[in-house]
Amino acid sequence: MHKYQPRFHLVRGHDVLKLAYSTFRTYVFKETEFIAVTAYQNEKITQLKIDHNPFAKGFRDTGAGKREKK
């Protein structure tokens, strides 16, 4: 599991080429903090996520990036 804290960066600039040197403010909202599950202990849950996640092509048996089970 990984903990994430999104940040909002507000940059003031008049010239795109000088943005690296522009004035900026970073805002963090405690309410947006979240924990993402990166691995599941239950194989049935893992399979459920693979079957219903359109971005999990590499984990599917028919996917181009087929991974072998250990």
TrEMBL record:
Its main location: nucleus. It is found in: Nucleus. The keyword Hydrolase does not apply. The keyword Transcription regulation applies. SMART domains: TBOX (SM00425). It comes from the Eukaryota. SUPFAM superfamilies: p53-like transcription factors. Keywords: DNA-binding, Nucleus, Transcription, Transcription regulation. Signal peptide: none annotated. Residues 1-61 form the T-box domain. One of its GO terms (biological process) is cell fate specification. InterPro entries: p53-like_TF_DNA-bd_sf (IPR008967), T-box_DNA-bd (IPR046360), T-box_sf (IPR036960), TF_T-box (IPR001699). This is T-box domain-containing protein. GO terms for cellular component: chromatin; nucleus. GO terms for molecular function: DNA-binding transcription factor activity, RNA polymerase II-specific; RNA polymerase II cis-regulatory region sequence-specific DNA binding.
